[in-house]
From TrEMBL:
InterPro entries: Rieske_2Fe-2S (IPR017941), Rieske_2Fe-2S_sf (IPR036922). It comes from the Bacteria. Keywords: 2Fe-2S, Dioxygenase, Iron, Iron-sulfur, Metal-binding, Oxidoreductase. PANTHER family: 3-PHENYLPROPIONATE_CINNAMIC ACID DIOXYGENASE FERREDOXIN SUBUNIT, FERREDOXIN-RELATED. This is Benzene 1,2-dioxygenase. CDD domains: Rieske_RO_ferredoxin. GO terms for molecular function: 2 iron, 2 sulfur cluster binding; dioxygenase activity; metal ion binding. Residues 6-105 form the Rieske domain. It comes from Pseudoxanthomonas suwonensis.
Length: 110
């Protein structure tokens, strides 16, 4: 678990409907941050089915989902739950905060 917050980008650089990958240097965790209609969410940038980066896939703001390009597994960006096969396990969700004009996240798993 990291107590250190990782800077993602300036608040104005992640617009609604966009996603941005970042790397938590403390824990070595790839994180993907989403702007869903102004609400920010962060998931581990790793498909629970095949250990492939979700950032290569498509973010669908209308469905609040991200799709893995490898086999088509989809995940809810709000809570990380798997929405369809071949993935059955959720991907970890991380906290996101807006502070000092920037977007920050961290791997908070204990």
């Amino acid at each position: 678990m990291s107590e250190t917050w990782t800077f993602v980008c300036a608040a104005g650089e992640l617009l609604p409907g966009e996603m941005r990958p970042v790397f938590d240097e403390v824990t070595g965790t790839p994180i993907l941050v989403f702007n869903l209609d102004g609400d920010l969410y962060a998931l581990e940038d790793r498909c629970s089915h095949e250990d492939f980066e979700l950032s290569s896939g498509a973010f669908d703001p209308a469905e609040a989902s991200v799709e893995c390009v490898l086999h088509g597994a989809r995940f809810d960006v709000r809570d990380g739950r798997a929405l369809c096969a071949p993935a059955y396990s959720a991907v970890p969700k991380f906290p996101v905060r807006l502070e000092q004009g920037g977007i920050w996240t961290r791997d908070d798993r204990g």
